[in-house]
Amino acid sequence: FRVFDAMNDPRNMKAALQAVRSHGAHAQGTLSYTTSPAHTLQTWLDLTEQLLETGVDSIAIKDMSGILTPMAAYELVSEIKKRYDVRLHLHCHATTGMAEMALLKAIEAGVDGVDTAISSMSATYGHPATEALVATLAGTEHDTGLDILKLENIAA
Prior knowledge:
Blueprint: E1 2-3, H1 10-22, E2 28-32, H2 41-53, E3 58-63, H3 70-83, E4 87-92, H4 99-109, E5 113-114, H5 130-137, H6 148-155
């Protein structure tokens, strides 16, 4: 279960994360990504550590407004993976047109999972298209193994 607090206060996530864990389910803490003078790389690293202290199973970077740039995604994922042994997931909305590139750079940096949507339900306020990412990664070390023809049938 992905648990988030839009204000990035781990105290607001703690009870929900503990409830998820108490039922033997996967508890995923979330960094609600934003930009401001107060939201530095160190801010995200500190929040990651605080979430890990609550006992999360994994962490998601939630870019709900589509403002995560590709290079910021690369840096953030790289630095979290370098410092912490945690499964890391990226959730980007396609609002600004940067989400596909942010996902690709995050994959290059070692993110463990990304959110996408089937093409007929993707883009704008949704997620990047699954088919586009599958095609982009085909034949690389990050090949998903998904069948693009089956995905196209789902999208139709």
